[in-house]
Amino acid sequence: MGDAAREENLCVSRAAASSGLLWRSWEDDLYIVHQASSAETHVFNGPTAAILRLLDDRPLALDNLKTHVEEALGAQRGDLAEADFYFAVHRLDELGLIECVQAADDVR
Amino acid sequence: MIIGDLARQDVAQRLAGDGLGIRFGPFNIRIRSELASFAALAHQLYAPYPIPGEADFNDFHVRLARPRGLRRWWRRQVCFAVDGQSPFAPYSVEHAFPALEWGINWCVATRSHHLLMLHSAVVERQGKAMLFPAWPGHGKSTLCTALIHSDWRLLSDEFGLVHPTDGSVLPIPRLIPLKNESIDVIRRFRSEAVIGPSFYGTRKGTVAHVRPPLDSIRRADEPARPRWLVFPRWLAGAPLSLTRMPKSQAFLMVATNSFNYEVLDATAFSLVADMVDACDCYSLCYSDLDEAIRALGELADADQA
């Protein structure tokens, strides 16, 4: 899920491995997540955790996803820096936690 | 029956024969050695430890033996062996006792995956465990030794053994190997502490072993509930600082201090997360043992109130 997808904003993502995740969080807006498929433990910040949880519900186009993440975090539209958002999406893709699927008109 | 019920000669005969059985918390060890000097020290420092029954399962069969081949005649050396294999280079024969102690710890750390093992000292008061996960050199053993001579019970100086079914911490009150300056620090702190001879020039510098207080050894079958996670750091001249640590940070530090977090996978994740849930987490920086012990005692007292 690289720059091409970012530029065209065509990529639709969905959670790939979320059913095997164990979550814990405490008072400090960090999320500790165990991924059964890789036996790894990750630390995610609020936006990254929100991306993963939103995509666990349904596939979303990236621009749409960013808006939903901002809503989930109680932020204004555009508050979440694009670079941070795409970095988080790219990292989740690298970890095998989300993946690109065929874009469909109803989720763009 | 305890080791101290045997005459020194009996200990030497068992070591040279079928082996001397000894129980360290949840583990039964059978030790063989023909070194007379080792037998004398084992009789002295292991005296309060129980001897397992003849029919009991031995978790580890360990041995101190002279190397085979030419090396045997070239230098006075000794090899640590477990189940017939020698995982380490030979030690000087004068270092046989610390070699055995390190070797037994190695056996526990590499072969006890039925438990979650944290690299942590653990002490207990009123059934509540205080864990000190720490990297080597952070003052964990010195602080732990001072605490167990100040009304805390020793569960372990080295291993936080977490039972996977209920998250309790199991005692393994073994000898505590103090290193270098820590030896004199503890001698000055509590002159009544039972400390064995100093071994000079070992792979870890000068080492001397502290025998835990008798109460800790006798209560080696009493687990405790995790209540505090304290990450210690000794810094020369530093003022005392005991500050709350975010739980997510504590989780990561406990997980990375574990011997077998990756082996136990999701079970380890849940156990560490449950432990962090149940514990107040602190970072401790200290240079004065008395100050540190007073502060940790106040934590425990406040929890009772």
Task: Summarize the topology.
The complex is a heterodimer of chains A (108) and B (305).
Chain A: H1 3-8, E1 12-15, E2 21-25, E3 30-35, E4 40-45, H2 46-57, E5 60-61, H3 62-72, H4 82-94, E6 98-101
Antiparallel strand pairs in A: 1-5, 1-6, 2-3, 3-4
Helix pairs in contact in A: 2-3, 2-4
Chain B: H1 8-16, E1 20-24, E2 27-33, H2 36-45, E3 60-65, H3 71-74, E4 77-82, E5 91-92, H4 96-111, E6 116-125, E7 128-133, H5 140-148, E8 153-156, E9 159-162, E10 169-170, E11 176-179, H6 181-189, E12 194-195, E13 199-202, E14 205-211, H7 214-218, E15 225-234, E16 241-244, H8 247-256, H9 261-264, H10 266-278, E17 280-286, H11 289-304
Parallel strand pairs in B: 2-3, 7-15, 15-17
Antiparallel strand pairs in B: 1-2, 3-4, 4-5, 6-7, 6-8, 6-9, 9-10, 11-14, 12-14, 13-14, 16-17
Helix pairs in contact in B: 1-2, 8-10
Key words describing this protein structure:
heterodimer, A: 108 residues, three-stranded antiparallel β-sheet, 6 strands, B: 305 residues, alpha+beta, eight-stranded mixed β-sheet, five-stranded mixed β-sheet, 11 helices, globular
